[in-house]
Design a protein that fits this description.
- Strands 5-4-3-2-1-9-8-7-6 form a nine-stranded parallel sheet, covered by helices on one side.
- Residues about 300 have low confidence and may be disordered.
- The chain has eleven helices and nine strands.
- By secondary structure, the protein is of the alpha/beta class.
- The protein has helices spanning about 5-10, 20-25, 30-45, 85-100, 115-130, 145-155, 180-195, 210-220, 250-260, 280-285, 305-315; strands at about 50-60, 105-110, 135-140, 160, 195-200, 200-205, 225-230, 265-270, 290-295.
- It is globular, with a radius of gyration of 19 Å.
- The chain has a single domain, classed as TIM Barrel (Alpha-Beta Barrel), CATH 3.20.20.
């Protein structure tokens, strides 16, 4: 299928298949891909930049053995470890987001799942946040929750659940043995059944192929994710992937552009790791498929400043 044919399909909301996207990757220049992705983004999504921010609400001591993660107890990274943060700490973070015009705000907790008293406390915090900042769109990222927990979050005011697929089903077993890709999909299905929107993407640069990156995007699209975060691996000392070579910036640009053609209506979101990119690459991606960003600090790594990001978005033609 030609690039023009795939563009025409995407402009009507029909995403490319993985095979079609791979054919484009093999035959098109980076400029061709970015220009196509930007046309689809402008037509399907407009020029609004979708911003979100997170607070690391419970840190470290995670039972899971995800090779990339600083929070796993299987790794020794020296990160700060703590149980659920206080309401005072949470409100301070949420107040800052609301003051700066960030649209979405999420608690992110380490561990296989939130449950019991900790989940009840988190739900209480969400209820208070809903009253304190009704303009904030509340999200949650709390692991492999069951249906009852999803329903509780929905009742507490949460509107979107984040559960990254992390990588393609074909590569996931090489990166984690304590849970499965199917566990992720089951969690996403529970979130949808509870009436929550889904945010689900992953990390690129963990040794996967381009095809597997595109499989990840297609899997997230087919799971009805409205937001697909793209994290770029920042190899963290002490993790199993600490010596993983960094992928080239052009490969990152091409990945994001192809993801837009696969998921024309989703928010393709800058997430962790983008601070290492050059300004030119960052701007090219915002004009080549990306239309959302996680702003502020990124769990165990540091992000760009909010002011820098807002100036960047304005410079590349976005509105808030």
């Amino acid at each position: 299928m030609t690039l023009d044919t795939i563009i025409s399909k995407a402009l009507e909301g029909h995403g490319a298949s993985v095979n079609e996207a791979m054919e484009l990757n093999n035959t098109c220049t980076t400029s061709q891909l970015c220009n196509a992705a930007d046309l689809v983004r402008q037509t399907r999504c407009g020029s609004h930049i979708d911003t979100c921010s997170i607070v690391n609400a419970r840190s470290g001591r995670c039972s899971e053995d995800c090779k990339w993660c600083a929070q796993s107890r299987h790794h020794h990274t020296g990160i700060e470890e703590y149980d659920l943060i206080s309401e005072q700490q949470l409100f301070k973070a949420a107040d800052t987001c609301a003051e700066r015009g960030v649209q979405r705000f999420s608690l992110v907790t380490s561990g296989r799942r939130m449950h019991g008293q900790a989940l009840k406390e988190a739900c209480s915090m969400y209820r208070k946040l809903s009253q304190r900042h009704p303009q904030l769109y509340l999200c949650a990222s709390m692991g492999l929750l069951d249906q009852e927990a999803m329903n509780a979050l929905k009742e507490a005011g949460v509107k979107r659940y984040h559960c990254n697929l992390e990588t393609a089903a074909s590569y996931f077993p090489q990166l984690c043995s304590t849970h499965t890709h199917a566990d992720k999909l089951q969690t996403i299905a529970a979130a949808r059944k509870a009436g929550l929107q889904v945010c689900s993407g992953g990390i690129i640069g963990m040794g996967e192929t381009m095809r597997q990156r595109l499989e990840l995007c297609a899997e997230a699209r087919d799971a009805e994710a409205v937001s697909i975060p793209v994290n770029i691996l920042s190899p963290i000392p002490g993790t199993a992937l600490e010596h993983t070579p960094l992928i080239e910036e052009e490969e990152i640009v091409r990945t994001a552009a192809l993801m837009r053609l696969i998921a024309p209506d989703a928010v393709i979101r800058f997430a962790g790791g983008r601070a290492r990119l050059s300004q030119a690459t960052t701007e090219r991606m915002l004009r080549g498929g990306i239309n959302g960003a996680l702003i502020g600090d990124m769990l165990t790594t540091v992000g760009n400043s909010v002011d820098q990001d807002y100036e960047l978005f304005s410079r590349t033609g976005y509105t808030r």
